[in-house]
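Appendix B, record 7
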Amino acid sequence: MSVSTTAPSPAHTPPPGAGEAPAPTPAELLGFAESVAADPELIASLPLDPEERTWVRLPGPGGSEAWLIGWPPGTGTGWHDHADSVGAFATAAGELTEHALAVRLPTGGWKTLELADGIDRIRRLPTGRGRAFGRDHVHEVLNVSPDRHAVSVHVYHPPLPLIRRYSRSGDTLRLEQVERPEDWQ
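Structure tokens (predicted):
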């Protein structure tokens, strides 16, 4: 294989965005997650750990990234967001619970926020159900079952640039940590 180290001349360089497919929409990401979650062979191929979450990275549509995740009983993500990525997830086995904030948070420059009343949302996502979300969506995902694993498919576009992790005490949300892809891959 030959690799050229010289850049093409400006006359032959396509304009930015030319020839690129449009980014997948949250609805398209959800459709992908639901279709993968419905593949029993793939779901059964995920090794499950009795105590810790397990995951396998999958190729996603339109340059997105996808993850097949196994959730032991009683595990969860903690409060977090996916920065500038849109995403979706679908439950393939078991049931997941999502706690989310129905508000867009400021994107930077803060460490602690007081949350208003009435912004909490709780969704139960049994096998076959999923949801899509937009940028800066703050949530936590849990397998509240005391004795049953859950498995889910998650997909993000663009691929996750970072994850911000939060702690929550009552109406106070505190930024605790920023993780980069090298922290979880």
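Remarks on this record: The first helix runs from residue 26 to 37. The first strand starts at residue 54 and ends at 59.
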